[in-house]
Amino acid sequence: MAELSVIESIRNTLWEEMKKDSAVIVMGEDIGQRGGVFLATQGFLEEFGESRVIDTPLAEASIMGIALGASFNGLRPIPEVQFSDFIWPGLNQIIGEASKTAYGSNGELNAPMVIRIPYGGGIRGGLYHSQNVESYFFHTPGLKICAPSTPYDAKGLLKSAISDNNPVIFLEHKKTYRLVRGEVPEEDYSIPIGVADIKKSGKDVTVVSYGLMLHYCLEASRLLEDHNIDVEIIDLMSLRPLDTSTILESIKKTGKLVVVHEDNLTGGVGAEIAATVSDLGFDYLDGPIKRICGPDIPTMPFAKSLEEAYLPNTTSIFNGILELSQY
Fold it and tell me: How far is CA 105 from CA 98, 206, 327, in A?
């Protein structure tokens, strides 16, 4: 095994898949000679050429439209959105077209494309380089959504996404890119989309999270051991399909549920999980469902103090779990 960062794992996986299948292409702003703003495609242009590493203009609607057309014609495009905040011009092609392709054609046409989206705060990116966009896609049938939190998961999920015949939103938290490292097997493997992973077993409280927040949840759980609170932590890994069965099985054991995400509180992934558990798992609960999420303000502040106030962190997660455990 090699110890890699999240971005190194993504880069290696893209390289492996392009070596293996000539139908796989990458496209996006500055991904060619520069290798992308996060260097995810560094060296790809020299290896695979301009026909498979397409440096596009600053035109997200065109990037997504061309990728969708390519997917109709035997290719497996991987368009990169430089920052999640730039995705909005491309939404019609993704939500209005790609998500409806299989359903609208009665399964005769597919759209095998993987849309890579660096997202999230914690890097002082300010209003236009820090947004969380998952809930917009989470609401949309016909899309799959992956949100890995570790280098191991990034490789396994990305391989599954590239081989999938449906459009996949692949969310990559920017702060995890070089902050989070871990062992990644050199051999080929994949992780099925739609299956959550129990990152830590416990018996007292179930915590569900994904992306960067998953790591803060793990830190909080270690601190809670001093209070004799044994936390079970579920990493969703995939937001759609949502692995409700793993969540329900966990709360059968613990009786308590905390959902943690960086995105806004209202209408987020946590709200859907809370509603689903209230509907299907109410009898298992012995306390209220708690959500620890970003506040309902338009976007991430730039000032360091305000960004820190916006983001859930180890302390706020620790306090939230501690409060719920008193029930």
Answer: 11, 41, 51
- Phi, psi (deg, nearest 5) at residue 109: -130, 135
* Residue closest to 23 by CA, chosen among 80, 81, 56, 67: 67
**Encoding tokens for residue 42?**
């560094």
| pTM for the model | 0.97
Q: What is the pLDDT of residues 147-196, one digit of tens each?
A: 999 999 999 999 999 999 999 999 999 999 999 999 999 999 999 999 99
Give the count of beta carbons closer than 10 Å to the beta carbon of residue 323.
13
Kind of pairing, strands 2-5 and 181-184?
antiparallel
Count of CB atoms situated within 10 Å of the CB of 159: 19
| Backbone φ, ψ for residue 58 (5° rounding) | -80, 80
Q: Is there a contact between 126 and 300 (Cβ–Cβ < 8 Å)?
A: yes
Task: Tell me the pLDDT tens digit for each residue of 93-131.
Answer: 999 999 999 999 999 999 999 999 999 999 999 999 999
Q: Give the C-alpha separation, 119 to 130, whole Å.
A: 6
| Burial classification of residue 1, based on how many CB atoms lie within 10 Å of its CB (0-12 exposed, 13-18 middle, 19 or more buried) | exposed
Catalytic residues: 129
39 burial type by CB count under 10 A (0-12 exposed, 13-18 middle, 19+ buried): middle
Q: What is the pLDDT of residues 258-286, one digit of tens each?
A: 999 999 999 999 999 999 999 999 999 99
Q: Shortest CA distance to 235 belongs to which of 223, 217, 222, 251?
A: 217
Closest CA relative to residue 94, chosen from 119, 117, 118, 127: 117
DSSP characters over 43-57:
THHHHH-TTTEEE--
Please give the average per-residue pLDDT across 84-97, as a whole number: 97
Q: Report the pLDDT value the prediction gives residue 186, as an integer from 0 to 100.
A: 95
Distance CA 300, CA 120 (A): 9
Domains and CATH numbers, the chain: 2-184 (3.40.50.970), 197-324 (3.40.50.920)
